[in-house]
């Protein structure tokens, strides 16, 4: 049997990972500034994480949600404390797409409405409603198409006001990434987030904060929407939640009522997943990783803005993007193959940085030195042509 060929891959086989570094089968070391799509939150193979997961694996890895799982309750308590949402409720699942599916479904259950507002360049997942609310026709199959999703320009308050004025009684939810990831590291303005909160409250719609990539401390606050000083009705989470172990979830405002069987999952909230998520939160607290993300991210953005030719350096914390002009089109490829540094991209010309929240300034400095050298070399080559 062959693998179904859907992933463009680099011919690198990683066999070891520690902190912010990975090693391939040939013993070559790489600095990881991508974290497997923003998944690695506390660093690869953190000793506390490995110990907690290993110990649990030797006891019980899985049983269904038909029995009491104290680790779910412990995770809910810990997550409420660290996120500042102690009065919210937690539903656990397995991925970001699944989290957004449940968020959109729960919103519709709550107010009985169908229409969803999403935004240009959004990405919410590749399944059913999540992909229907994603602004990429190439990954939306005919069966996923629906007239119930309204796409509006990102950060456009006037357009949002106009749609609510015209269709407010039909709007079930507004879903937004506080910082768009796949869309190119576009930061939602604080004013825009406050406008979403006001209109959702006014018209009885639910505010869904898609925090799958931009949440869990990556921005320097637990949720990037916290910069606007507003509370969403539902927050979706995954990626950094398990530091590589598959887990997702939504946290749900206290005014939203549950009933048996309205949501459900086989694997969500299993023993091993909950322990992995607990280990992540424990390390984040002990090592002050949100503060580190804010400080190291600010250092990176300050230094990147000093490098000639890099354009529109943006982001928050350790979710950073910048535009690369055509004459530097080989920059990301050269960072990987010449300097052994993993970075991410967003089409057509954005380099994305999504490292571990434990990235040190020394490691960040290693990247700045490499990219400065490579930009200078590519610029010189261009000048000679």
Strand content: 15-25%
Order of helical and strand elements: EEEHHHEHEHEHEEEHEEEHHEEHEEEH
CATH topology of the largest domain: Aspartate Aminotransferase, domain 2
Mean pLDDT: 97
Instruction: State the CATH architecture of the largest domain.
Output: 3-Layer(aba) Sandwich
Radius of gyration computed on alpha carbons? 21 Å
Count the domains.
2
Give the helix level as a range of percent: 25-40%
Strand tally is: 17
Largest sheet: 7 strands, mixed
CATH superfamily of the largest domain: Type I PLP-dependent aspartate aminotransferase-like (Major domain)
Q: Within the largest sheet, what's the order of strands? A: 4-12-11-10-7-5-6
**Helical segment count:** 11
What is the CA–CA distance across the termini? 48 Å
CATH class of the largest domain: Alpha Beta
Q: Structural class from helices and strands?
A: alpha/beta
Q: In one word, what is the shape?
A: globular
Poorly predicted runs of 5 or more residues: none
List strands and helices in order, with pairings.
Blueprint: E1 14-18, E2 21-24, E3 29-32, H1 35-38, H2 47-57, H3 70-83, E4 89-93, H4 96-111, E5 115-119, H5 128-132, E6 149-152, H6 157-167, E7 171-177, E8 179-180, E9 186-187, H7 190-203, E10 206-210, E11 234-237, E12 248-252, H8 271-286, H9 289-304, E13 311-316, E14 319-323, H10 331-337, E15 341-342, E16 344-346, E17 350-353, H11 361-384
């Amino acid at each position: 049997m062959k693998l179904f060929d859907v992933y463009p891959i680099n011919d690198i086989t990683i066999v070891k990972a520690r902190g912010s570094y990975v090693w391939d089968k040939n013993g070559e070391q790489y600095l990881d500034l991508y974290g497997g799509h923003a998944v690695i939150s506390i660093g690869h193979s953190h000793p506390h994480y490995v110990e907690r997961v290993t110990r649990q694996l030797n006891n019980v890895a899985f049983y269904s949600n038909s029995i009491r799982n104290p680790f779910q309750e412990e995770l809910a308590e810990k997550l409420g404390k660290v996120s500042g949402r102690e009065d919210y409720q937690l539903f656990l699942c397995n991925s970001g797409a699944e989290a957004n599916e449940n968020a959109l479904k729960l919103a519709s259950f709550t107010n009985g409405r169908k229409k969803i507002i999403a935004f240009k360049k959004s990405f919410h997942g590749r399944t059913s409603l999540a992909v229907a609310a994603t602004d990429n026709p190439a990954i939306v199959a005919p069966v996923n198409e629906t007239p119930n999703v309204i796409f509006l320009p990102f950060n456009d308050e006037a357009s949002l006001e106009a749609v609510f004025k015209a269709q407010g009684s039909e709007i079930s939810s507004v879903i937004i990434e506080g910082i768009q990831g796949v869309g190119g590291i576009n930061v939602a303005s604080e004013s825009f987030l406050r406008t979403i909160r006001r209109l959702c409250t006014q018209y009885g719609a639910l505010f869904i904060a898609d925090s799958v990539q931009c949440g869990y401390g990556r921005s320097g606050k637990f949720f990037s929407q916290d910069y606007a000083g507003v509370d969403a009705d539902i927050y979706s989470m995954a990626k950094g939640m398990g530091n590589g172990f598959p887990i997702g979830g939504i946290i749900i405002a206290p005014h939203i009522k549950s009933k048996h069987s309205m949501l459900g999952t086989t694997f969500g909230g299993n023993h091993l997943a909950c322990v992995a998520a607990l280990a992540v939160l424990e390390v984040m607290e002990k090592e002050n990783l949100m503060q580190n993300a804010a400080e190291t991210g600010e250092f990176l953005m300050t230094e990147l803005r000093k490098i000639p030719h890099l354009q529109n350096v943006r982001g928050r914390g350790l979710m950073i993007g910048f535009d690369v002009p055509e004459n530097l089109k080989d920059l990301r490829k050269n960072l990987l193959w010449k300097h052994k540094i993993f970075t991410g991209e967003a089409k057509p010309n954005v380099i994305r940085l999504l490292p571990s929240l434990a990235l040190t300034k020394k490691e960040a400095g290693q990247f700045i030195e490499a990219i400065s050298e490579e930009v200078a070399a590519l610029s010189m080559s261009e000048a000679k042509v």
